[in-house]
Hints:
Blueprint: H1 2-7, H2 15-43, H3 49-94, H4 100-112, H5 117-140, H6 147-173, H7 177-206
Helix pairs in contact: 2-3, 2-5, 2-6, 2-7, 3-4, 3-5, 5-6, 6-7
Amino acid sequence: MELGQKQYFDYSQRAQWLRGVVLGGLEGLVFSTLLMMNIDQMVTQDQTKSTKLILTGFLGLISGALRIAISELVSVYTQVDTLTFQAKRNLKLLGRHQHHQHDHHHDEKTWQMMPNPAQVAVTSSLAYLLVGTVPLLAFGFVDQQHTNLRACIAMISACLSMLLVGGFAAVLGNASIARSCARVLVGGLVAILIMWGKIKIYSWVSV
C-alpha cells in the first residue's frame, strides 16, 4: 500500500499549464501559417519582400506571445479569485465540527488544484512563440522561386507541429495520444480554415 502511494501521481495538477501549451501552440500556428500563405501570394509579385515579411512574422509572433501571456494572466487570475472565494465560503458553511478531518483534506485538495496564473501565462506564451516559429522556418528554407511549394511546406509543417503539440500534452497528461493528436489537428485546421475564409471575404469585399 505504501509503495502504491509513492508511485501515485496526480496528473490533474498539470492540466492548467498543459491547456496553456495547447492554446498557445495552436494560436501561434494559426497566425504564422496564415501569414506564410499570404506572403506566398505577395512574393509572387515582388520577390524582394520575402525576407522583410518573414522578419515581420517573427515580430508578430513576439507581440502575439506577449498578448496571449497577458490574456492568460488576467483570465486565470479571475478563475483563482472565484475558486478562492468559493473555498473560503465552503469553510464558513461547513464549519469545523465532526467532519473536521474530511474538511481539512478537501480544503488542501482545493488549494492544490488552484491554477498558477504566472505559470500558465509563461507556458502559453512560450508555446505560441516556439511552435509558431516552425512554419516560418520551414517557409524560409524553400527557394523563393517555388512560391506554391513554400505555402504547402508551411501548411505541412503546421500540421506536424499540431500533432507534436497534441502528443506532448497527452504524454505529460497521461491521456490518449491518438485522441489528443486528432483533436489538436482537427481543431487547428478548422481554425486556419475559418481565418482563411475571413481573409478571403475581406479581399472580396474590398475589391
